[in-house]
Amino acid sequence: MNEFILYSYFRSSASYRVRIALNLKDIAFEYRAIHLLNNGGEQNQEDYRKLNPSGEVPTLVHNGRALAQSMAILDYLDHVAPTPRLFPEDPYRRALVIQACEIVNSGVQPVHNLKVLQLLEERFDADQKRKNDWAAHWITKGLDSLEAFLKPHAGDFSFGHEVSAADCFLMPHLVNADRFQVSLAPYPTLSRIRANCEKLDPFKRAAPNVQPDTPPNV
Ligand SMILES: N[C@@H](CCC(=O)N[C@@H](CS)C(=O)NCC(=O)O)C(=O)O
Fold this sequence. Notes:
Layout: E1 4-8, H1 13-24, E2 30-33, H2 46-51, E3 59-62, E4 65-68, H3 70-80, H4 91-108, H5 114-124, H6 128-150, H7 165-179, H8 188-198, H9 201-206
Parallel strand pairs: 1-2
Antiparallel strand pairs: 1-3, 3-4
The structure holds glutathione (GSH).
The site of glutathione has 17 residues, from helix 1, helix 3 and helix 5.
């Protein structure tokens, strides 16, 4: 048995990271949609929280065993399906790739996550415009850091000419920038990497606009 199930939401950037990784490794998986808004958010339902106590997507189930947190999932995938590698073997290069991932993963994504934007509205009366400004602010901070950090390392991709976990984290961040109308014009390195990622089938198939739960008007 080698069965992979991905609990995902089309627009979730963290799910998008894992979709790219699964596709890069050519791992077939069953897609189970978790709607983050319907019914108070399906991620908050009791049955789902048994799989993922944080009430977030993605969750990957491999042969009946659940795993959450996209960074942990990518690391796991590198062990169970080592080709192509997402994290380099060399300790320093591996740490640099993780550094890039963490700029997104712990640096900026958590502060503009859905539950944060919802709290801004519920407790602090933020309207849609203020919520968008908030998200755009943090997305821009992430872009500034990534452009400066990746510039000396990047080739076609974040690190040289091979795709790595850094690209799996970067691409969804750039698509989030589009969503919150943050221009990528000031970020030539990131724009070049994006153009190269977008040419690759694993990235194309992982995109939010082509998922099983993508609404028809997106
Ligand atoms: N660090 C987590 C982040 C997961 C996360 O924030 N997921 C978001 C969607 S991108 C979510 O499920 N949010 C649900 C909510 O805010 O209620 C990961 O990398 O998996």
